[in-house]
Amino acid sequence: MSINNNNQEAAKTREQFKKESNPQPAKVRRRRIRVRILPIWLRIIIVAALIFLSLIAGAAVGYGVIGNGEAKDIFKKSTWTHIVDLIEKE
């Protein structure tokens, strides 16, 4: 008799086990409300700002350190026109 009882216990599905172990019906359960610390729109702005700052830092390192120029020259228009002219040169 105990072997048969053990087989019945083993044959329970996960859903049956959850229903038996949780005495509250599904309608009475409370859903946990998620409170976001940073709203989604603020996250998007932060990511965009970080991308912009990484582009500036990459240009400064690339032009100033690797290219043997001055890092502050990346903010000059003449530097960028010179770079574009080098790229588009045929």
UniProtKB/TrEMBL annotation:
It comes from the Bacteria. InterPro entries: RNApol_su_b/EpuA. Residues 1-10 have a biased composition (Polar residues). Signal peptide: none annotated. Residues 1-26 are annotated as: Disordered. Keywords: Membrane, Transmembrane, Transmembrane helix. Residues 11-21 have a biased composition (Basic and acidic residues). The chain crosses the membrane at residues 40-66. The keyword Hydrolase does not apply. This is Hydroxymyristoyl-ACP dehydratase. It comes from Cytobacillus solani.
